[in-house]
Amino acid sequence: MALQPKLGWVPIDLVRKTLECTTQLATYRDVGTLREHKKARYPMLNRRRLMEKYATDTWYASTKRISGSTCCQIFTVMTSYYTYVVGMQSESEEPTALKTFIRQIGAPFALRNDNSQMQTGKAFTAFLNFYNIGSETTEPHHSQ
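Above: the chain's sequence. Below: its structure in token form.
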């Protein structure tokens, strides 16, 4: 069996039993050599997963905060209404705010947003795809 040398030359029947009992979480099947990795191969699997839908929107303030932010990105759970706020200097920092949210709280199951250009743009969508986060958009003029 090809995996036997990569698993430390354990007996073949033990290799077969191991493969029958383990769950494959990723689609990448190359076991490769056993070595220390400086960077995770699957960073999306290393994040805490939140099994809830979050709604997100950008809010603007009429005055600056002490930190200098003029707007913020709000993430709210749609069932329990838990809210997490990330301050921003401008709307273009939304992908950074999403990264902060995932790092501090976790990766949500799905993210519902309005049809703003930033939240449906390439950088935001690519980040959602990388962390396997579903995306939902609301209908215009009917916030939910």
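The chain has two domains: 5-35, 49-137.
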